[in-house]
Amino acid sequence: DIQMTQSPSTLSASVGDRVTITCRASQSISSWLAWYQQKPGKAPKLLIYKASSLESGVPSRFSGSGSGTEFTLTISSLQPDDFATYHCQQYNSYSRTFGQGTKVEIK
Amino acid sequence: QVQLQESGPGLVKPSETLSLTCTVSGGSISSYYWSWIRQPAGKGLEWIGRIYTSGSTNYNPSLRSRVTMSVDTSKNQFSLKLSSVTAADTAMYYCARDKSSGGPYWYFDLWGRGTLVTVSS
Q1: Rounded distance, CA A50 to CA A30, Å?
Q2: Which terminus has fewer CB within 10 Å in chain B: N or C?
Q3: In chain A, what are the helix, strand and coil shares in percent, each to the nearest 5?
Q4: How confident is residue B9, by pLDDT bands cut at 50, 70 and 90?
Q5: Is a pLDDT exceeding 90 seen at residue B61?
Q6: Contact, A48 vs A35, CB < 8 A?
Q7: How far apart, in Å, are the Cα atoms of A101 and each of A36, A86, B61, B86?
Q8: How far from A13 is each of A20, A87, B56, B88, CA to CA, in Å?
């Protein structure tokens, strides 16, 4: 299986901060990467697909970049609603795999 | 809008079979792939497998020997059975809808809220 490694595991930030989360794949996955936001008790929400395509309805402060083995999710100006856990997921291979998650906390 | 809701027993005994159902509301289940994904506490998400509305399935090789999925289009539901469970199968279980980026490249564009299943005697 392709291993996905996210960093950091936890991130403390303030409203208005620019936040970047990194996801690394154990082998090249081209641009077949998605990002999800997860809040306690709620359904995970798709933010980004194909590494940089913004899902409809997702605020433009979210952006994704990267290809091959290294990817980033950036929140340009952190809002109160953005405190959550973020997961990356590769879909280059049959067995789709996820990173371990990055929790964005209030500083 | 389309919503997914997982249901099933929250407690299963070791060696027994875990059974969950996902109900799709606000839209048709037809012509989509539907997946099950789980997340043990404090760990990452794990894809279990998926089913098409024709009944065709794809399973994670690590779980294939214990997984069975089925679909009931008349009820807009699909189901998961995981046999011979152990404490390691304790997790939050999610159902989700697959979406293609084109070709054999699939991500998940819609998720349920999840249901916690604990394996314990």
Answers
A1: 9
A2: N
A3: 5, 50, 50
A4: very high
A5: yes
A6: yes
A7: 9, 5, 23, 24
A8: 11, 17, 45, 34
Question: Nearest by CB to B94, which of A4, A44, A94?
Answer: A44
Asked if A73 has any chain B CB less than 8 Å from its own CB, the reply is no
CA–CA–CA angle B62, A39, A16 (5° rounding):
125
Cis peptide before A59 (omega within 30 of 0): no
Block residue for tokens 């789709």 = A96
For A28, the token pair is 């090249």
* Residue whose C-alpha is closest to residue B37's, from B21, B19, B50, B55: B50
Structure token pair of residue B41? 């506490």
Q: What is the pLDDT of residues B100-119, one digit of tens each?
A: 887 788 999 999 999 999 99
For chain A, say whether B43 makes contact (Cβ under 8 Å): yes
Pairing of strands A97-98, A85-90: antiparallel
Predicted local distance difference test score (pLDDT) of residue A16: 96
Whether A34 contacts A91, CB under 8 Å: yes
Q: Please give the C-alpha separations between residue B19 and each of A39, A53, A63, B47, B52, in angstroms, as whole numbers.
A: 25, 35, 38, 16, 18
Is A46 within 8 Å of B108 when comparing Cβ atoms? yes
